Amino acid sequence: MAEQLAGLADDRALLGRTSTAERVSDILRSRIADGYFPPGTRLSEDSIGGALGVSRNTLREAFRLLTHERLLVHELNRGVFVRVLTVEDVEDIYRTRSLVECAVVRGLGEPPYALQGLAAAVAEGETAAVENDWKAMGTANIHFHQELVALAGSERTDELMRSVFAELRLAFHVVDDPRRLHEPYLARNRQILRALQAGDQPEAEQLLETYLADSLKRVVDVYRRRVGEEGAS
Q: Is it the case that residue 44 has pLDDT exceeding 50?
């Protein structure tokens, strides 16, 4: 035991660095999600490290974490970039969403359900619509689906979908008309919420399944056109 504890003591120095790297990755993840660093942006180690006041090693560890989450990509001899998703990436994201989100609703059990977070996300979206803040509406829409997944009460599922939703935001940032993308789903979020409030789990699942299929088609159509335009320019 003494030998194992001695080895563990050697790892003590990693605690502060790992904690800092995780905090840095949280900051960068949020900035990427908000569009501060759009897809295709090269992330400068010197600039970001200087702004955050962290070491190069800490920043590289944060980059590694976000690369593992598929938000960043390392290009040999060029540096680290925010990922530009392919159409196939977008389709795979929605495939994952459909598998997980519909399974969460299907497995809810007997009502009533704890829907406070879901209701708050709907209200958040409605406020954004009144204020014509379509970027905030997109954020509220993501919050709605995060709260939906949270109904499963599973930290592992929450963690999985956190990465999926972060990737989804990369696709949203390529779309040049966020109002057209997000506004139609505000009423549909309300429909799903009402079905769950009524304890109609099968109806909520059907609404969600149709919702995700329609959203996939809309996002892929816009994304394919947008990426094609940029590739031709």
A: yes
